[in-house]
Amino acid sequence: MKRQLILEDGTVFKGEAFGSDTDKIGEVVFNTGMTGYQEILSDPSYCGQIVTLTYPLIGNYGINRDDFESINPAISGFIVKEAADCPSNWRNEISLDEMLKSKGIPGISGIDTRKLTRIIRRHGTLKGAICRIEKKPEEIIEQLKATVAPTDQVKRVSTKTAYPSPGRGKRIALVDFGMKHGILRELNDRDCDVVVLPYNVTASEILLLNPDGVMLSNGPGNPKDVPEAIEMIQGIQGKVPLFGICLGHQLFALANRADTEKMKFGHRGSNHPVQDLRTGKVALTSQNHGYTVQRESIERTNLEVTHIALNDKTIEGLKHKEYPAFTVQYHPEASPGPVDANYLFDEFLSMIESEKEEGEAKCQNVQI
């Protein structure tokens, strides 16, 4: 069955349909990872987006039960050069096509994904529609031009109620802005006692839990669309150690009077080099973001830049000069991608321990 991809600039690609037979509109972006399509599909940070994979063959190792980063994918559509019909892997359970059908996600294959990627790189991300072949392009283009970008992505993907993920170690309040399960896995692997909280949790509600630390998760969309989170961060920083990832990093910057801006086409892939300015070491990182913290805005804050992207020199890490708080723009939990930056979870727990020891020492001095 034929299907078409129509972009708001008037470009039309015709290809083969796979996945759900629904028509969907979304922001068209590209990811350069060679593997990890299941994790990409289920990453809540892609809420409302149509993702193009630049690697030409997708679906060859199928879909398994273990590599999902969320239960219900929020992605709007999937674009590939070739979708494998007969996956082969010892963990394979269903095909990519079957998975997309079950989740209501339309896909299109057989188009020139290199050409599409070059269009996005030249013009920036574009609104697009995956639709039936009989739809008239001029009508869809008018519809795309009239479509307003959504502002409720975080609300759509965040948990609606708090829930625990028990452990015997440090208690971590994990604020879910569109959390990848990889973050929760890393904390559980370190025996943390995690409480996952909705995006609109207040500072007072978090402090009532008496957490040892607070984790700000990744998530979709523009950080300025989540003002309640900015207020919450301002209410907890300095009172409890804090670690932010991706959207959590951007929200932390906004909470400290820095600014963010939309990137031309963002960073989405599994091999982005990032340098730690404190050590000079470079890590290959997994990334998925369309906004960045403005470098000039950092000068009016109490924040210090700790990491930069080597490809374009954008900010990839921040640290508060006074409070126990740091953030990174990339994904140390990987899934997919290299685990070079996995050590940041250990640094977070070490920071919590240091703050605890310092607090106990102050109490002893007061008693003396």
Automatic annotation (TrEMBL):
Q: Which residues form the active site?
A: C246, H331, E333
Binding sites annotated in the UniProt record for L-glutamine: S45, G219, G221, L247, Q250, N288, G290, Y291
Q: Where is this region: CPSase?
A: 1-170
- What are its E.C. numbers? 6.3.5.5
UniProt GO molecular function: ATP binding; carbamoyl-phosphate synthase (glutamine-hydrolyzing) activity; glutaminase activity
Query: Per its UniProt record, what CDD domains does this chain match?
Result: GATase1_CPSase
Pathway info: Amino-acid biosynthesis; L-arginine biosynthesis; carbamoyl phosphate from bicarbonate: step 1/1; Pyrimidine metabolism; UMP biosynthesis via de novo pathway; (S)-dihydroorotate from bicarbonate: step 1/3
Q: Which Gene3D superfamilies match?
A: 3.40.50.880, Carbamoyl-phosphate synthase small subunit, N-terminal domain (3.50.30.20)
Q: Which SMART domains match?
A: CPSase_sm_chain (SM01097)
| One Pfam family, short name | GATase
According to the entry, every stretch annotated as the Carbamoyl-phosphate synthase small subunit N-terminal domain falls at 1-131
Q: Which UniProt keywords apply?
A: Amino-acid biosynthesis, Arginine biosynthesis, ATP-binding, Glutamine amidotransferase, Ligase, Nucleotide-binding, Pyrimidine biosynthesis
GO biological process per UniProt: 'de novo' pyrimidine nucleobase biosynthetic process; 'de novo' UMP biosynthetic process; glutamine metabolic process; L-arginine biosynthetic process
Reaction catalysed by this enzyme = hydrogencarbonate + L-glutamine + 2 ATP + H2O = carbamoyl phosphate + L-glutamate + 2 ADP + phosphate + 2 H(+); L-glutamine + H2O = L-glutamate + NH4(+)
Function comment: Small subunit of the glutamine-dependent carbamoyl phosphate synthetase (CPSase). CPSase catalyzes the formation of carbamoyl phosphate from the ammonia moiety of glutamine, carbonate, and phosphate donated by ATP, constituting the first step of 2 biosynthetic pathways, one leading to arginine and/or urea and the other to pyrimidine nucleotides. The small subunit (glutamine amidotransferase) binds and cleaves glutamine to supply the large subunit with the substrate ammonia.
Description of how the protein assembles with itself and partners: Composed of two chains; the small (or glutamine) chain promotes the hydrolysis of glutamine to ammonia, which is used by the large (or ammonia) chain to synthesize carbamoyl phosphate. Tetramer of heterodimers (alpha,beta)4.
Query: Which family is this sequence assigned to?
Result: Belongs to the CarA family.
NCBIfam families registered for this protein in UniProt: CPSaseIIsmall, PRK12838.1
Protein name according to UniProt: Carbamoyl phosphate synthase small chain
Q: Which organism is it from?
A: Peribacillus glennii
- List the gene name: carA
